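Predict structure. Chain length: 319.
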Amino acid sequence: MLLLSGLSRLLDQGELAMLVALRVLCVAAWAVCAVVVARIARHLGGSPSVAVWLGAVNPLVLLHLVSGNHNDALMLGLLLPGLLLALLDRPLLGIVLCVGAAGIKATALVVVLVIGVDWAQRQEGWPARLRALVLAGGLGAGLFALSVQLSGYGWSFLGNLDTPGKALEALTPTTALAFALDVDDPPIDGARQAGIVVAVVLGLLFLTRLRSWGLVRVTSWIALTVVLTGSVVWPWYLIWPTMLFAAAGVLAERLVVVLWSVALLFTVLPGGHPVFALYERPGPEQLVLVVLGVAVVAGLVHVGVSRRRRRRQPAGVPT
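Prediction complete.
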């Protein structure tokens, strides 16, 4: 809000000038994302070029983040550098940038949590871990509260957080579940509450994998969980998991990103009209649930096969 207000005053509230300025900012943020994704991939020992092709020069990213002029570009232009700083053992600076990202989209606050927990887990002894967790949480909460007050709008934005959820899109798993259960009187609120529970449980589970998976990969999975269990899902919401998975460098996860990047290109018509709205309910919702179910089963099978292979691997042979 501060950025938009400042641009409006600077450009004398000219609509065309504002649109051009926002487009320039989005393109600049996209360029920052491309550079940072490559840096993260290189830091993790992966291929920077593959990470850039999948995470930045991706048709889904170009269509919605750059051409669509979404504020997700600005959020990611702060969030990804914040994550990189945390990887470089500068977690407090990373938290500062992620709080800035949360000033654009509040969902970025989950990355503040992940960075704080990761930093705490790397400390020696419980007293040091608690101090790190308190410091990270206090810094994140304090900076966010300060930014809210400085914006001039206060906490009134909380009343608008449910606005996206007014769109009952079939692409949203919680909405799809509600309409699949009862197309005439879908239990939307119950499905969304169940989504929150699933998000919390899976988020805590992923946090326990920080030491084995690493910061970027855990953040990727938590980001994807937050998106899929939310009150509405649009194709561009999956761009930040796309970039994170691209940087993390796990082959199986990158293949999934390729699949959803292609599929999601055909879910929204020019002008923003969802393709699923052209079909009678609950057909689209049932299709979404089937695809999601197949993905979950395939993921569980892959995990099981990978564990079995690791157990069979002879000692001393790299996996």
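Summary: The mean pLDDT is 89.
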